[in-house]
Amino acid sequence: MNTQQFPWQEQLWSRLQLQWAGDRLPHALLVTGSTGVGKQALAENLAAQLLCQAPDNAGACGKCAACKLLEAGSHPDLRHVTRVEDSRQIRIDSVRALTEFMGMKSQYGGYRIGLIYPADTMNANAANSLLKTLEEPPAGAVLILVTDRPSAIPATVRSRCQQAVVPAPTRDQALTWLRSQAPDLAERAAALLPMAGGAPLRALSYAQQDVDQRLSQLAGLLDNLATGRATLPEATGDWKKDDLALLLDLLPFLVQQVIRRSTGLPVEGIAPSCGDGLDPRALHEYLAYMYNYRALAERPINAELAIEDLFIRWQRVGRRAA
User: Fold this and answer.
1) Where are the extended beta strands (E) located within 76-221?
2) What is the pLDDT of residues 135-172, one digit of tens each?
3) Are residue 47 and residue 119 in the same domain, yes or no?
């Protein structure tokens, strides 16, 4: 279990502690917030506290038998439900198994906890299967759903959960955390914070993956594509199907910075120059198209064709400036 506490979560954690102390903790909690602000850690910390045999307001003790089982990933009163293997969805069989578990007696005489993440990837049948447990929660059962996209969860499920919105940290909080956690990468991660939406965990992950270098390479590629100095096969050859999610992070950010430069606004973070002089309307249309593409990418699609399509449309933006 991840027991790291983040300073920007203190107010939310305190609210949950008041509910826990007053025996008012909801039977279903929907933990939301942007990617990279520590939603999963908060959910796991709360689950650990509820299962701990000697908890306090700071969380689980980390020393009791229950905490040792949690650390080993074998506590019998906790179930994780997530996507399996290469599936993009949480399927009904996984949720049915969870609802059966929630109705059983606790083996340690306390709570039974179900963690569902990313909850927005439950297919319609899985979400409907969860409704009975949400409508008639068994005593001592707590469901914790974690998602970046609460709007993608059916309203019938959302309305039966209490939301816990994990805030994004201030820039100072993010920088302080990055320096304490990864001093060698802190400077690079800080430069990637704007692309990460201010989320330090995401920025650190970007730095660990050398995304700043990929961003610079992509900027050069976009310039060459727009001006005809690079061909489509050359562009797609640098991006494999597993890179689609990253490309859908980098491309919109770069185009946003092109638009900012064209309107005299300062660029944010690492923003290699590309696409200067392109038609502003075409850039805005391309950006809107990519935002729609992000939603489509959550569904089963051919990633290689999707990458090719994104570059073809960028070529068209370049031609409109020719």
Assistant:
1) 78-81, 112-116, 141-147, 162-165
2) 999 999 999 999 999 999 999 999 999 999 999 999 99
3) yes
